[in-house]
Each structure stands twice: as C-alpha cells, then as structure tokens.
Amino acid sequence: MIKTSPFHQRTSEANQTGLWSHWAGYLSASRYTASTKFEYYAVRNAAGVFDTSPLHKYRITGPDAELYLAGLLTRDIRKCRPGRAQYTTWLDDDGFVLEDGVVMRTAGDDFLLTTAHANKGFLDDHRLGKSVVIEDVSADHGALAVQGPLSGEIIKHLSPEATDLPYFGVTETKAGSIPVTISRTGFTGDLGYEIWVDSSHAVDLWDRLFNIGTPMGAIPIGEEALQMLRIEAGLLLIDVDFKSSRFAWNDDQRHTLREVGLGWMVRLDRDDRAFVGRKATEQDTPRWVTTGIVVDWQAWDSAYRSRGLIPEKDHAAALGGMMLYDSNVESIGHVTSFVYSPLLQRHIGIARIRPEHSTPGANVSLEVTIDHRYELIDASVTRLPFYDPERKTA
Amino acid sequence: MAARNYDAVVIGGGHNGLVHGAYLAKAGLSTLILERRHVVGGAAITEELYPGFQFTTFSYALSLLRPEVIHELELTKHGFMPLDMPSTFAPTEDGDYLFLTGDKGADHHEIARHSAHDADAYTAYSHMMEEVVEAIRPLIDSIPPDITSKDPEERARMAAIGSYLADLPPKTLHNMVRLLTGSAADVLEDYFESDIMQGWLASSGIIGSKVGPRSQGSGLVLLYHSFGEHDGAYGSWAFHKGGNGGFTQVLARSAESFGAEIRLSADVDHVAVDNGRATGVVLADGTEIDAGIVVSALDPRLTFTKLVDPLELPADLVENVRRMKFQGTSAKVNFALDSNPTYPGLEGRSDHYRGFFNIGPSLDYLERAFDDAKYGWYSAKPYIDGAIQSNVDPDMAPPGKAVMSCFIQYAPYELKESDWDTERDPFGDVVQAQLEHFFPGFGDLVLHREVVTPLDIERTVGLTEGNIFAGEFLAPQMFFFRPAPGWNQYRTPIHGYYQCGSGTHPGGCVMGAPGRFAAQQVIKDRSAAS
Ligand SMILES: Cc1cc2nc3c(=O)[nH]c(=O)nc-3n(C[C@H](O)[C@H](O)[C@H](O)COP(=O)(O)OP(=O)(O)OC[C@H]3O[C@@H](n4cnc5c(N)ncnc54)[C@H](O)[C@@H]3O)c2cc1C
Q1: Is-contact A164 A71, C-beta < 8 A?
Q2: How much distance in Å is there from the Cα of B463 to the middle of ligand 1?
Q3: Atom number in ligand 1 closest to CA B330
Q4: Closest C-alpha among B55, B391, B392, B508 to residue B244
Q5: Do B81 and A38 touch (CB under 8 A)?
Q6: Cα dist. B530→A64, B30, B438, B526 in Å?
Q7: Phi and psi of B214, rounded to 5°?
Q8: What confidence score (pLDDT) does residue A318 get?
Q9: Where are the alpha helices (DSSP H) in B76-151?
Q10: CB distance B252 to ligand 1 below 6 Å
C-alpha cells in the first residue's frame, strides 16, 4: 500500500492540484499550485521547501562503522569529520556505479546514509564480520529540504545554532524544542539545508518552519520544480541519468564513476584504501563523458516556426533518451535529462557523449520530434553545472 | 571644456538607450550613454521610497521584451530573472471575483462560475489571439519599409508585406484587421457575455491610451499588449527580480560588459550640429562631448524639437512631430502596506496576489472611467491594474509587509480648470477609496503612498505629456508612421543623428526593439560609409 510522509497532513492541505507521484512507496507532491515555474523561482529567488522524507535512510553505528564505510564507499569516509557530510557513490567489483547518496557523520561512529533505492540487504551483505550495526530508519524520520537564497535567513531564525553551518556541514540541534539534525545539503544547486526530524515531530517542524518562512516568501515545492532545479544544477538522478549496475541487463547500461562524471570522488594516487570496485576503477577507460548540452535558441524556435507552430518551452523535464548526432549524422550520445531553463532562457540537457565529441563548445545535433517528424537542432557541449551561484558554497 | 571623443553618444539611459548602447559597444564602437538622472532606467526604475520597500515608481512588469535582446546582449549572464506571475485576480462589482491560476481546466471551472459560455469562449479567444500574434510578429520584429521612398528595395519590401498578408489564412487576416482598426469591446463582445471577462480582457485595450474600450483603436492597444511572451507563453507578464529597475540594472551591466560607458547626472542640452551633420552633444553644464554618431533615446517631441533646432529639419517632419498625439492619461499610485490586504471571502489567503489584480469589472465600468477623462477630469471610479509585488519577489518589502503597485486610468495630462500639483492628493484619495471599496480595511494598512501623476512622469522621466509610450498607440502613429512618415527607420534628416526611443517602431513598453533596430541601422550606415 502506498504510504504518506510524516508531513502529509500539511502537504495534503497545501497541495491545491491534487497531483501526487509515487516515490519510493510514498505520495510525493508533483506540484502544489498550477505553476511549476513559480515553485522553481521560489528556490532561485526566495526559498522553497521540498518534502524529501521518502528517501531511504540508514543509520550505521558501531566501532567498525568507519572501517566498514571506507571499504564500501568511493569517497574516503575517513576524511569526513564528525559534523560533515559527503555526497558519495558505491560501485560493484567491475567498477560500475551501484548508487549515489549522501552520508552524514553526526558523531565519530554514527553515520546516516540516505539513498534513493532500498539498500538494507546490500549493506548487510558487505559487513563481512565487522562490528557495525545497520538500521533502516527510513520511517522514523521525516526530512524537509529548505532551499534558496533566503534559506539561510530562515534557518537562522529556526535554529540559530545552525546559522554558520558550512557547505556539507551537519549539526544536531533544536528547532525551538524539537530535536533536529540539519545539514547544509540539497538537490537544487542553490544555498540550501535539509532538516531531519523524528516523524512524531514532523508536523510541528513544518508549522514552525512556515511560521518563519511564509513572511519571507517560502513556499512548498513539488517534484516538477525539483527536476528543473536539479538539471540546472547538473545533479544526476538514478534511474534517469544512470542505472544502478545491480539492475542493468548488460554493460551498455552500466557506467563507471568517470563515465557519470563523478571521477573526482576518488583520488587513487593519494588514497590507499581498498574499496569495492577500486581495481576496476584504476583500469577504467571511459566510453562516455557526462556533460551538459545547451540548445541554440534560434534553431529551436525556427524548427517550430517553420512548421507554423509556437515554440515549445516546456518546464516539465523530459527524462530519457534524446539522441545526439555529429555533423555526419553519426550517433555520438544521448541526452538523459532535458528541460527548458527559465533562468538561462534556453533548453538544457544532461548528456552522455562519446569522449571525442565532448569538448566544451563542440557542436552537436539534438534529435527532437516535432509534429511526428524528426528534426535535428543545433546544440553545443557545455560543462556542468549550468547554474552555480556563489551562495551555494559561500 | 572638451572631453574625450566617442564614436557614439546615446542621449538617455532608459531601457532603449541602454539596449542601443550595448549593441553599439558590442559592435566595437566606443559608446557613451548619457543619463540626466542619478539612475539609469528612465520609466523602468525601482526606488526605495520608504525604508525597506522597493517601489516600481513607473513601469512595473515585463512581457514584450524581445528574445533577441535577451540572447544577443547575454542578459542571463547579468542577472536576468523574469519571475513568474501565475495568477489573475479580478473582483466583480457584486463582491465576487474571477481568480485564474493558469491551470486550463481549473480556470475553465472558475470562468464557468460566471458564464459557461465564456469558459469555452476563452479558449477560442486565446487561440485566435495567438494566431493573430504569430501572424503579425514578423512585422513587429523587423524594420518597416519607408512608405515615402522610391528606392526599389523599399518598394520591394512594401510589396513583400502585401503578399505576406495575402498569404495569411483569410480568417486570421480578418481578425488582425478587426483588432488593428476596431474597438476591443467589439471583438470581446463577440466572444464573451459576462461582465467580468469582458472587463478584465478589455483592460489591456486601454492601457496607456486615451481610448475607452468602446473606442476604435482600443483593439490595437489590446493586440499590442498581447505580443509579449515568456518562455513560449504568449501574452504572459513577468515581474523581473527587483522590478523593472532590476531589469534595467541588468541591461546596464550588460552594456558595460561590452565596453559602453554610462554617465549619470548628465543632462544633455542639445545636439551639436555642423553643416547638417551631428558632431556631438552639449550638456546643460556646458560640457561638450564629440561624437560622429549621436542617438536620441528620448521621445520624438524632444528628439526633433528640443535637442535640435527644428529649423535644421524639414518642415513637414516638424509639423508631424508637433501634431503627434501624446496626451498621457495614466498615473501610478504605489503603496507600502503593513500586510497583504484582505478580499472578503478569501481571508487568510495570498495566492490570488501572485500576479495582477484587475479593478475593471465590466466594459461599462471602464467606459465610464473614460467618460470622465474625455471631459478633462480623472475617473471618479478609476481602472486599476494592481500588483502586490512582494508576493512574487519577497525582497521588495520587509518580511510580512507588502508593496503594491497600482497603474491607474484615467488621469488626463490636461485637467480642466485645475492642475496636477493641486490634484495630486485628491486624486490619490480617489484611488485609495476605490481600493477600500474592494479590499475593506485597506486604508488601515497604508504605511506610505506615492502618487505619480502624468505631470510627474513628464517631469521626472521626460516623457512628453506623461505619455507612457512616448507617443500614443494610434494607427496613424504606428509602423510606417512612427514617429513620422519617411523617418520610421531610426535615421533623422541630420546626418549622424539617430533616434532609438519608444517613439520609434514598434513603440513603447519595456521591449528593447527600438534600441536594437536603431543599432542595426547605425552599424549598417557605418559599414556602408567605411
Ligand atoms: C507609469 C508607467 C507605467 C508603465 N508600465 C509599463 C509596464 O508595466 N510594462 C511595460 O512594458 N511598459 C510599461 N510602461 C512603458 C515603458 O516603461 C516605456 O515605454 C519604456 O520604459 C520607455 O523606455 P525608453 O528607453 O524608450 O524611454 P525612457 O524610459 O523614457 O528613457 C528616457 C531616458 O532619458 C533620460 N533623459 C531625458 N531627457 C534627457 C536629457 N536631456 N539628457 C539626458 N537624459 C535624458 C530620462 O531620464 C530617461 O532615463 C510604463 C510607463 C510608465 C510611464
């Protein structure tokens, strides 16, 4: 049966559209009001609040917790001090990406790992006799992502102690009398925080947050706006931009760390850890580069106008394979996530391109279907992220 | 005192002057933009007129800006941010309202509360408007031919327009002509039966113009206000981050990034002309600035009769410019409020303030408001195009407070037996009383009120008679004829002297097209000369 998040009492009141999607077995608002763009701009200009409770959450404790994670995760957890978090991945033995997630180190041997897929079995299987306790705490916690330029001001009023939290910092603190864990993380590429709360206090937290946030312009935002934001931020989404190697049918569907653009997570020259997939990673010759493409706006408009149509500028992200070609109409890759960016006033896409065609500035042709006919539209390769305000890390 | 020499000097740092200067600088011309005030933007500025509250003193929303300007001037690199205004809120005379959110189906139900007929008609009307806008767009987005020219190239362009129109679907052409020549009411009454739909939609047909919804010519104004677009949605309006002043700051950054220089508090007295050729400008303080190209971003009255000696110009041009109708009829009353006002029945909500609210509940209401203006007075029950902008951009007001922009009609520039300095406050009271009528308790929320009369617009921005478009949108003042037949291609009879303000094609609004087209002409002439 589909579940509801600990904030459902409030999100269901706020959701005027009645549109929900199913996310990890929970109802998740697609959008709260008719305008996805309004929700999108709340994050780029004020503050948007996203209910991120359906993420799977694992608490990992015990004397060997660090050792255990050091052997499993690509990023070196030993470098993650208490009070910090890391965006990380884990691989299979062949060096293919299984999943990505955020690990927060709240204390020396206390970690909270959030993931998009269920991983309890996988995590258990890799314990290999280490003294570590892995608990699935998914249902115990609700989480709200507060994102946007005014999120810092809201956090300052909500939990003054968290005011100076650095980028990817974590703190256990209080919002009024409610115990919360606050991390300076998010999925929007903007200044932002995520607040973790015991499910029993979720509604109280929501009310407290919006009492502070509403006068500042904070509004709840749904998945559609989040898609726009995370594509602009160049953040990959599992099952969209890559597939977990666990569920792939062949190696074409699998991707190495460098192929998904996350090669920076490992520094093999300075890191002596043995972690799952290390050997394969050392020998990897990437078949792909994950990068951005930006569509030539005039080419886009004239492709529509030449058919007597008004150019489509859809804020709903297109997820899936749009083909990319070179000037000889040879296939050179595909776009995995695509959206019209109001801030950039162009269509943008996260793409997987053959290395020889992936130099920033290189011209590519994007295949789209207009009125049931294929059209090739000029685009160019660009670095990710598309949007990266200083305030994100400042 | 002679200052340094520039390739081009632009007179006026309104949005068109900035756009123009940016293009010239991008093309490699050393360019100086001279602005009389302490701030660029002209009619498109944002000012903190009350502590913590940002006022869009004049112009308040963005729609007609050409996409070419956004991209060619790389505005997205400089903070371009057209925030979405998704809602429309229109109180009715009987205390009900029309509240549209942009969800087609939900809006259908909302319109159907007033008329099931109109709910269906709205989709048909919207589609018709889009067809007409698409059809007329190529004419807006190009420099009109010179109707007086015998040049074969100009003649060929005239002929091309003829055949373009002849190739349009007959229905679209007919609708276009109806809009261009008729009244907004005629078109709207064909589609709609409810007062609220007629009144709300007709409001776009009177903005900035001394016409009522039943006057011939209001169709053109209605169509003009539908040319705009955001992200592919026609006729939609956005609120730029920080107001239209936020937008003109983006333009200024863009212009400077291409190398244009902007000088503030630089009041141009006149254009220096030698032997029928512009040689530079002279500021009010006597400073002389030399430049082979001088471009006026002011309105045609100022461009042709103040900045240069009309004796330098052909008499028929001077005559046309003197005859050109300005007769401003619009005012602003802007408020700092203690909180959002309350509309009876929607207590505790604010989502109806995420766009414009429209006080123009019927054709009769608008037409009666116009009646007052016809006889030289401001409307007893004025039309109000309002927006509580802090709901869209929270940085416009302190947390929990609200800043509200009200565009008002009618407020004729010339008052019978009084003047605007006398009537400023009484007029502000009339507007506030009307707001009190629709939003009971409104007056208690007012922390500060700023009344901007047509006279204030003229004094502060320079726009003749306070006409917000730098010359009315009347058919004889548009396209081939804007600002005058034979002088619609941004040149003037004085060699090296050009015009790039809203008094040129396509016209007023924060559009950037005049500035852009004028730059194309300057650059073309320069490369032809070299
Ligand atoms: C009250 C009001 C509301 C409006 N609302 C909207 C709206 O919401 N949306 C919209 O799209 N349009 C709106 N408009 C219309 C739009 O703002 C104008 O058409 C447009 O801004 C004009 O731009 P411009 O650059 O052509 O001229 P202006 O903005 O008039 O710029 C001329 C500039 O020249 C300067 N100047 C004048 N004389 C001199 C001199 N001698 N020397 C040096 N500098 C000088 C002025 O200070 C000014 O900065 C509104 C206009 C007004 C007045």
Answers
A1: no
A2: 7
A3: 1
A4: B55
A5: no
A6: 78, 16, 63, 6
A7: -95, 5
A8: 85
A9: 104-112, 116-140
A10: no
Residues A167 and A214 in one domain: yes
pLDDT at A207 over 50: yes
Residue B291: DSSP 8-state: E
Chain B residues with CB within 8 Å of chain A CB: 67, 70-71, 76, 80-84, 86, 101-103, 106, 130, 134, 230-234, 241, 351, 354, 390-391, 393-395, 399-400
Note whether B285 and B337 are same-domain residues: no
Regarding whether A357 and A297 lie in a shared domain, the answer is yes
A165 and A296, same domain (yes or no): no
Cα B197 to averaged position of ligand 1 atoms, centre (Å):
31
At B71, the amino acid letter reads H
Best mutation target, B66, B80, B351, B403, to test chain A (most A CBs within 10 A)? B351
Is there a single domain that holds both residue A314 and residue A271?
A: no
Same domain for B420 and B308? no
Count how many pairs of residues, chain A against chain B, have C-beta atoms within 8 Å: 77
Residues B205 and B312 in one domain: no
* In-domain check, residue B96: no
Structure tokens at B403: 């800043």
The distance of A154 to chain B (nearest Cα, Å) reads 11
Partners of A312 on chain B (C-beta within 8 Å) are 232
- The H-assigned helical ranges of chain A are 8-14, 36-45, 65-70, 120-125, 151-158, 202-213, 223-232, 278-282, 297-305
CA–CA separation, B386 and B406 (whole Å): 4
The mean pLDDT of B397-425, rounded to a whole number, is 98
Whether A295 and A383 share a structural domain: yes
Task: Give the CATH number, domain containing residue B440.
Answer: 3.30.519
Residue from B20, B32, B58, B385 whose mutation best tests the ligand 1 pocket (most atoms within 8 A of CB): B58
Dump the DSSP string for B263-283.
ESS--EEEEEEETTEEEEEEE
Region B321-330: mean pLDDT is 97
At B429-452, the pLDDT tens digits run 999 999 999 999 999 999 999 999
State the Cα–Cα distance between residues A335 and A318, nearest whole angstrom. Answer: 9
Structurally, how many domains does chain B consist of?
Answer: 3
Q: What confidence tens digit (pLDDT) does each residue in A152-201 have?
A: 999 999 999 999 999 999 999 999 999 999 999 999 999 999 999 999 99
List chain B residues with CB under 8 Å of A17: 103
Identify all chain B residues contacting A38, using CB atoms and an 8 Å cutoff: 84, 86, 354
Mutation test residue for ligand 1: of B262, B289, B502, B504, the one with most atoms within 8 Å of CB:
B502
Tell me the CA distances in angstroms from A177 to A154, A174, A181, B405, one per residue in order.
16, 6, 13, 41
What does the pLDDT read at residue B1?
44
Give the residue from B62, B66, B72, B84 with the most A CB atoms within 10 Å of its CB, the best one to mutate: B84
Q: Provide the domain limits for residue B180.
A: 125-236
Query: pLDDT band at B3, cuts 50/70/90?
Result: low
Which value, to the nearest 10 degrees, does the dihedral of the CA atoms of residues B305, B309, B313, B314 take? 80
| Ligand 1 neighbourhood includes B11 CB (under 6 angstroms) | yes
Cβ–Cβ contact A41 with B under 8 A? yes
CB B206 within 8 A of CB B359: no
